[in-house]
Amino acid sequence: MGKKGDLSNFERGMVVGARRAGLSISQSTQLLGFSRTTISRVYKEWCAKGKTSSMRQSCGRKCLVDARGQRRMGRLIQADRRATLTEIATRYNRGMQQSICEATTRTTLKWMGYNSRRPHRVPLISTTNRKKRLQFARAHQNWTVEDWKNVAWSDESRFLLRHSNGRVRIWRKQNEIMDPSCLVTTVQAGGGGVMVWGMFSWHTLGPLVPIGHRLNATAYLSIVSDHVHPFMTTMYPSSDGYFQQDNAPCHKARIISNWFLEHDNEFTVLKWPPQSPDLNPKQHLWDVVERELRALDVHPTNLHQLQDAILSIWANISKECFQHLVESMPRRIKAVLKVKGGQTPY
């Protein structure tokens, strides 16, 4: 059977070599596996023009956006990552002799490696907090996975019954996920739905506690005494455990600090840098719960059903899942060191 598609320069040279060696068209076809028509056409082209290269790459419509135009379009993207296709095409056509449409703009951007993506959401990190993150990373850069196994991670999260789809999209290349112009900064804020507090360590999942009202210092003290204390003393009976919490106001209240001081002979509170959810693997467990909620065949229609669904999903998170997250801590620390305390992909 003959070869489909155009021949490479090497294959065309093989055809010419076979015919010049005295082989007939039939013999060349049997030897090389190309059709008789292809053998004849390639050899005739060589005899007439003395060439063995194909000219098919020069066929077809000429590209409307040349290399210079691509550089121009790249500058437009760099100047405004949130521009729509219409805006990019309009700005590109200004001062150009030949205008392009949105379809050509989309094709060109895709060829250049740009795709429309949702911006990666990261916390807004001040200069002071960036220094604190870097200090924390330097202090723990020699910690191994075995060291991180002694840490119990905690956090609160709120899950909503309904989600907004009004997300901003940007143009970026695959390797530009952490480019400052491709990020959307966020700040901690509340919302509707069900709020829960949970903790876990490399060894096991801890309790997940629904919070009926606003989490204040009094409510958090109950959580610490009723859930954190028994978990830490059970999992780390040798008093070598670390309890992690972020810097939420209720976590830093005087009654909470005094309680931890009274129990500092049982476990240690890990000094946590501000605005560092990327260092807390607990954040990724919340993502697991969120994805499972969205994947439910029957979505909760009230807060009671939502709470039951969250508790059920939490109880079924695999051990491999949360252990893998804890094992990522050395890599997270290296990532913070690499960006000198800035945002990381985690």
Structure overview:
- InterPro entries: Homeodomain-like_sf, RNaseH_sf, Tc1-like_DDE_dom, Transposase_5, Transposase_Tc1-like, WH-like_DNA-bd_sf.
- Residues 193-295 form the Tc1-like transposase DDE domain.
- One of its GO terms (biological process) is DNA transposition.
- By secondary structure, this protein is of the alpha/beta class.
- It has 3 domains: 9-58; 67-113; 127-339, Nucleotidyltransferase, domain 5.
- Helix content is 45%, strand content 12%.
- A 5-stranded mixed beta sheet has the order 7-6-3-8-9, with helices on both faces. The chain has a two-stranded antiparallel sheet with strand order 1-4.
- Helix 1 packs across helix 3 (36-49) and helix 7 crosses helix 14.
- The model is unreliable at 187-191 (pLDDT under 50).
Précis, in short:
The protein has helices spanning 9-20, 25-32, 36-49, 67-79, 85-93, 102-112, 127-139, 145-148, 217-235, 254-262, 282-294, 303-315, 319-327, 329-338, and strands spanning 115-117, 120-123, 151-159, 170-172, 183-186, 194-200, 205-211, 242-243, 268-269.
CATH architecture title of the largest domain: 2-Layer Sandwich
Approximately how much beta-strand content do the residues carry? 5-15%
Helical content (DSSP H or I, runs of 4+): 40-55%
What is the CATH topology classification name of the largest domain? Answer: Nucleotidyltransferase, domain 5
Rough outline:
elongated
What is the chain-wise order of helices and strands? HHHHHHEEHHEEEEEHEHEHHHH
In terms of per-residue confidence, which ranges show pLDDT below 50 for 5 or more consecutive residues? 187-191
| Multimeric status of the protein | single chain
Category from helices, strands and their pairing = alpha/beta
What strand order characterises the main sheet? 7-6-3-8-9
CATH superfamily of the largest domain: Ribonuclease H-like superfamily/Ribonuclease H
CATH classification class of the largest domain: Alpha Beta
Mean pLDDT: 88
DSSP E strands, number: 9
Distance between the termini: 53 Å
How many distinct folded domains? 3
Query: What's the helix count?
Result: 14
Q: How is the biggest beta sheet arranged?
A: 5 strands, mixed
Rg calc? 31 Å
